[in-house]
Design a protein that fits this description.
The chain has 183 residues and is mainly alpha-helical. The chain is built from ten helices and no strands. The radius of gyration is 15 Å and the shape is globular.
Length: 183
């Protein structure tokens, strides 16, 4: 499985440009964590790219990402990548166990939250976002209310690194692709 193969799957199943940007953001975070945990950045990046590929065709927590698994299997996506995708969604009952699975679970919700924080900065730029501004916005329940804060906290616990380090790792990864994200 190559990045080009994963992008082809995205092009086939994901039409919403913001969802594609989310998957690019999570890919960047996963590549950063591959470096920290000694993983293969290409493999970890593919996990980030594909983790929500089926959301538009199965947009419920009961169906996503379970129902997309057969599509990934047919496309030759390796089992460990498919398993990591299952482990990022608590409703599947699959718990994140490997470093790759834990990183995906921890990076998914917080990356979307960071984008929301960036959109509220004066110039709508990720370079204007800080760990402190993320923490401040997380405390406001009315800000990005659909973001699951309990899942963010569970991700930090599961990942097992200090929250500020986690936020800094993901933020730097997103800042590294700010042009692709339009932020």
């Amino acid at each position: 499985m190559t990045r080009a193969d994963a992008l082809a799957i995205l092009d086939e199943f994901v039409k919403n440009p913001n969802l594609k940007k989310h998957m690019l953001a999570v890919e960047a975070a996963m590549r950063a964590y591959a470096g920290k945990f000694g993983g293969d950045p290409d493999e970890w990046g593919i996990v980030g790219l594909l983790h929500d590929f089926d959301w538009e065709i199965h947009p419920t927590l009961e169906d996503h990402p379970l129902k997309g698994q057969s599509i990934l299997e047919q496309r030759g996506v390796p089992l460990n990548i498919r398993h990591a995708i299952l482990a990022h969604a608590p409703a599947t009952g699959v718990r994140p166990e490997t470093s790759m699975e834990r990183a995906l679970f921890a990076s998914d919700e917080i990356s979307g939250f960071m984008v929301a924080v960036a959109l509220m900065t004066p110039h709508k730029k990720l370079t204007e976002v800080t760990v402190e501004s993320i923490e401040k916005k997380l405390k406001r329940k009315d800000f990005a209310a659909k973001v699951n804060r309990q899942e963010i906290e569970a991700g930090i616990t599961t990942l097992g690194i200090p929250r500020d380090q986690h936020f800094q790792t993901v933020l730097q990864a997103l800042q590294g692709i700010h042009e692709q994200l339009g932020l």
